[in-house]
Amino acid sequence: MKRRLLVSVLPIALLAGCGDKAEDEAAGDAMDPASEQALNDELMTDPDLAGRNEANAALSGTGNAAIPNIDKSPRAIEAARSRAAELVGGHSKLTSAPAAKALGDDAAPSAAMVAAARAAVAPGDANCGDRVKYTSAWAAKLPAAFPVYPRGNTQEAAGTDEGDCALRVVSFLTPVALDEVMAFYSTRAKSAGYSVEHVTSAGDNILSGTKGSSAYVVYGRRLPEGVTEIDLVTTE
Prior knowledge:
Layout: E1 3-4, H1 10-14, H2 21-30, H3 33-40, E2 44-45, H4 47-50, H5 57-60, H6 74-87, E3 101-102, H7 111-117, E4 121-122, E5 126-127, E6 133-134, E7 153-160, E8 167-174, H8 178-191, E9 197-201, E10 204-211, E11 214-222, E12 228-235
Parallel strand pairs: 3-9
Antiparallel strand pairs: 1-2, 4-5, 6-7, 7-8, 8-12, 9-10, 10-11, 11-12
């Protein structure tokens, strides 16, 4: 049985945008047929295969594709928070994500969201999504600015460095509150020189931004089980 990996949700970001009208127009001009096809194709993965790499079980905490029994104790949450603060230079450096803008069904995408959503497309119109390999080891190969949140439990990861591609897609769970996790990624992005946009769409909080030709998208949601689920896409 197969299910969607993160890249399949990228078109959600294209349904609506933030920023000014000039950005929206630029975003529309940036799209081309090859990009649109890559963005609308579902990147599928077999969770049985994705979870089979037991050598990387330490990254996922379980070594399989099932949702684990995550440690949600106050001690575990505080340990994750403390490490997150260290990674941004201290608690005083950790700032909240910008206020989220709710996206309407007919809103146009901004330039930053289009660029981030094009993470599956490389120069020369190569569809990097077709080249990804599935192993939790990719969670350890994310760009330095966007690591898995401390003590996060990786559920699925894929990536490729083939040709001009530098694509990473990682899904993980953490007991830390959603707003704290989004604050971490917003702070990391700003510190690394990336732009930061924050919107809500289809029940997700979405951070996205660019720096030159590099881009990221962070999708976050709070699950009924009392954990935060994050889907992270990066390209360099």
